[in-house]
Please model this.
Amino acid sequence: MKKVLALAIVLAAWMTSGAQQYRMEFRLEGLTDSVLYIARHYRDQLLPVDTARVGKDGSVVFKGKRAWKRNVYALVHQDGEKSIGDFVVDDSRQFTITADAKLTPESVKVKGSEANRRMFSYMARWSEAKKQRAELEKRKKDAATREQAEKEEQALMDEMDAYDKEMRHPKKAQLFFDLVNFFDDTDVPEEVEDKPYYFRTHYWDRLFGAKQLPLPLEELRYTPNLYNKLNYFFFGQMYHADKDTIVKEIDRLAARIGDDTAMLRYVFDHIEPRYFRSTRNIGWDAVWCHLMSNYYLKGRCPWVREGTLYTMRLNYNRIRQSLIGAHGQELWMADTNQSTNADDWISSHRFPTKYVILWFWDPDCHHCQEQSAELKVLYDSLLTAPYRPFEVYAVGYESDVEKWKKYVREHDFRWVNVGGPNVNIDYQEAYNVHGAPTMIILNERRDIIMNKVIPIKSLLRFLEEYEKKVKGER
Model:
């Protein structure tokens, strides 16, 4: 079970002095599993806390003596990979839930737990309202029924709004509804001009600024809500944000977390791999380097082992050399003549053009072939133009020199073609080239202004936008 930690370890942590008798029975129709788990949520993982065998009648009973924490739990299939559905442990430790095999809210009947009864009833009511609204949307497309459908839709929305307020009322609410309120969307005042900025800067107010939390801060880490909130913020709301904005919000959140190492780990263990592994998002490598230089390599992440930190440091030293804004290291390489005399080698920096495109490609790579063909069309179209803003310094990323030379000759690449073993430095390390194609664009100072492969059709527009930006900064 990939997403399940060792059961014995988790169970041991839960056997505390506050243990009490519990009996949680699930009667699920059409269930095919022979064993089920109860698991806690931890980010996108499921951590098992109890297990029981399924009876012949499809019922499964979890019972014993344990101090259950108030929280949202998952009923999990026997492979430990997939949740059947969630339930709450709140007002009772002695209850029975009857439902279909998917724990569909509309099918659920609860005995012995008002908290679960209200939660599933609420979910079923909203599920039905969603279906009703979908039908009304269809009727609104017909001119003959549009007006009536709009009235019915407004009535439905008013009804559900009143129902929602009633169920969430502080005097009636239980854990599930407290969490719904707590993790609700950030309210942005109508009078605020910069709404995205307000949303970002107040997004975490309820978690790190609330006077009263629905659960202890430690327990909030074991709700699915916190993971969803974290994931939406960085990889939904902030997905297209620039590097500086992302870095600012990471630092802001880390400052709010403060000395809570467990919470910092909760956040960083999720976002760090995503920023490191991204090959498409511009600036995400710089975000990862910021995490390294300001947190991991400064000893602020004590949970990381020395061996892992050593690897992170090596990657950091390699990646930071090719970040946007860094000065591109000058390459000297042999062209297709493959001269061993360094005086014959060609520099990547000494061209009269304002920009240089370092194009690392492999003739055996299908994507490289397609992209190189598009680049050739653009390059050749500018050969007779009065002004060509860039030169292409194409590095054959291929150990078979004869194969590379043959491909260049057959496809009539007229740009600067270099390759082979004759080179002044390790360009793979210098420009973080660990796959093909890789594109690096250098400006007139030969600083890196782009380190991702952008569509060839967007190349000239990118250079134009870059020049506008530079002029605006002067």
About this structure: The chain has four domains: 7-112, 120-175, 188-322, 332-473. Residues 1-17 have pLDDT under 50 and may be disordered. The domain at 7-112 is CATH 2.60.40 (Immunoglobulin-like). The two ends are 57 Å apart (CA to CA).
